[in-house]
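Course assignment 3, question 2. Fill in each field.
Student: A.L.
Task: Predict the tertiary structure for the chain below.
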Amino acid sequence: MFPTSNVPAPVSLRAMEEALVRAMEIAHPQLEVVPFPGRPEDWRFVHAIGSILVRFHGRSFSQSHALEAIVQVQTPSWYLMTYSRNLREHQGAYEILDTTLQAIKGFRIPGCDKLYPTGDSFVQEKDGVWVFESTFTASTLSVESLYTDPGAPLAGIVPDWLR
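Answer field:
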């Protein structure tokens, strides 16, 4: 059980991923949009036009901003991997990248700041399939869990300031 406070609930990576997938499905109804597969070697690009794979890239954490508990800003980064069968034509990679940028820039996942782009880059072209990655990030809080329930997994490990 957690102590009550005005600290917002942490946003899980899964919730963030689901929000990004849904946003991309709305922005690109003509494309396949899926989370990055658990077994990438089993995924195949078979869509007639293009696909977007949403992939967690990593996150950074700030210094703690509180004295009594660890309160940090976490900044996860997400890759939106674009696969396209053409580069410049209608519904090609350039159009997908531009539509993605306009749809996601400023999009707010509940519990996070607005998403902002940090870059696009060419990954490869192979057999007429163009692959790019767009990187987006947004900040959210990461707050220390303070267990008060004696049956909680870390109940025997009590911060000094609570003793």
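Instructor remarks: The first strand starts at residue 32 and ends at 35. The chain is about 15% helix and 35% strand.
Grade: pending
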